[in-house]
Amino acid sequence: MRVPPSLSPKKRANDNDRADTARRLDEAYADGQLSPGEHEERLTTALHATTLGQLAALTVDLQSGTVLPSMTKPRARKQHNIVRFLVPAIVTLLVMGLLIWAAGGRNESDDEVNTAGEQYSYLTPRGLAEVIAAIRAKFGNATVDDLTVYPGYAVVFRAAEDAPLQQLSYYYNGEFREPTDSGTRKDLPMVDLKTVDIMKVASVIAGAGTSLNLSRVDQSYLVIRAGEEEPEVLVFASNDKKESGHLALDIHGSFLAVYPSGQ
Fold first, then answer.
1. Which residues form the DUF1707 domain (predicted)?
2. What is the C-alpha separation between 57 and 115, in angstroms, rounded?
3. Closest by alpha carbon to 172, among 159, 148, 155, 157?
4. Is residue 204 within 8 Å of 160, Cβ to Cβ?
5. Can you list the positions of beta strands (E) in the chain?
6. Cα–Cα distance for residue pair 112/107, rounded to 1 Å
7. Cβ(145)–Cβ(160) under 8 Å?
């Protein structure tokens, strides 16, 4: 979503704002603007950001469509003849960056497609099962503070082994990267992912467009996190027509609340 320039950077960010920023960071990583380490660090910050100003700071130095507006007054444009020379140069650089990334910047798992020709997604039953199995293999159990899953990657938040009050985040895309410090943990019980009904949750994700009254779904992601009384399972969906909404489920995949687009 694009926030009106008049909005204060101190305004509280919502889940859709965080999702938009995460998607912009993914695009910047894909076209070579961010290194893997920079992408992971900014993504972690975006998922925990509380204000629009914090989110804007994560994309202010990136090329092309920024998710949030600059919090400073933009400079006046230079003469149009300069633009005529700059635009082709920028396009050339972007194309070169995409070619370099496509040649060597992705894991083989990124390019895996199923028999229907669709890109492999971690939001499918198979994808969710892979993520949870990878968590168990790495940590010896499937307990987490938060698991956020996008079609192409997942981010796991857990307590540090040697510092239970410290939270670490782990970016997963076929393999885990080195963890990033995510600050102090909340005093909430961890979620055991073994208790999540993967098939039902994945079916809710697949039908999110209909449930949320969206004309189509261009972006979606899943959050499974600790709650005050019980784990929270949230499915977010949106599209480039500015339609968005989310669903709240229990760990068995049953609906608890629906927040459709426009309501």
1. 12-63
2. 41
3. 155
4. no
5. 143-144, 146-149, 154-160, 163-172, 180-184, 191-192, 219-225, 232-238, 244-249, 255-259
6. 9
7. no
